[in-house]
Design goal:
- The protein is built from three helices and nine strands; from the N terminus they run ββββββαβαβαβ.
- The chain is of the alpha/beta class.
- The strands form two sheets. Strands 3, 4, 5, 6, 7, 8 and 9 form a seven-stranded mixed beta sheet that branches. The chain has a two-stranded antiparallel sheet with strand order 1-2.
- The N and C termini lie far apart (41 Å).
């Protein structure tokens, strides 16, 4: 239905521990994104397992689990927080890629090592609209 799912520690959460974000969250000219990856295949290739985006005011506009294209061989739970149960709620990589591309188009994108996230998402974004906090001194 296109609504983002937000993970909260709350007694009002549904049985999956998720809340649904507003159907029409306020998008701003600046967004922050973070992605979590799992290892797949024999080469332990990094693939997207979760993508989260917040607006300028810190409101969640996107937070979904994503089923990698290839078989997961390492959940990397100690760093990603991703567990097998999360994949039951996951959307396809192509769905996530399309949704995220639509959300970030024409907006300033902020994140730590954000270029790595964009590479794994197989998305291009104008260099002048990328602000990588890894490079801030």
């Amino acid at each position: 239905d296109g609504r983002a799912q937000v993970v909260l520690n709350s007694s009002s959460a549904n049985h999956h521990g998720l809340h649904e974000a507003k159907a029409n969250p306020r998008l701003s000219g600046t967004l922050a994104m973070d992605c979590e990856f799992v290892g797949t295949g024999d080469e332990d290739k990094s693939e997207l397992a979760r993508a989260s985006i917040v607006n300028y005011w810190g409101e969640c506009v996107y937070d979904k689990y994503v089923k990698p294209v290839n078989k997961i061989t390492d959940y990397r739970t100690w760093v990603s927080g991703i567990e097998p149960r999360h994949m039951k709620l996951a959307i396809t990589f192509r769905e996530a890629q399309k949704e995220i591309a639509e959300i970030i188009k024409g907006r300033i994108l902020v994140g730590h090592s954000i270029r790595s996230d964009l590479v794994v998402l197989m998305l291009n974004h104008p260099k002048e609209l990328i602000h990588d906090t890894r490079r801030v001194v």
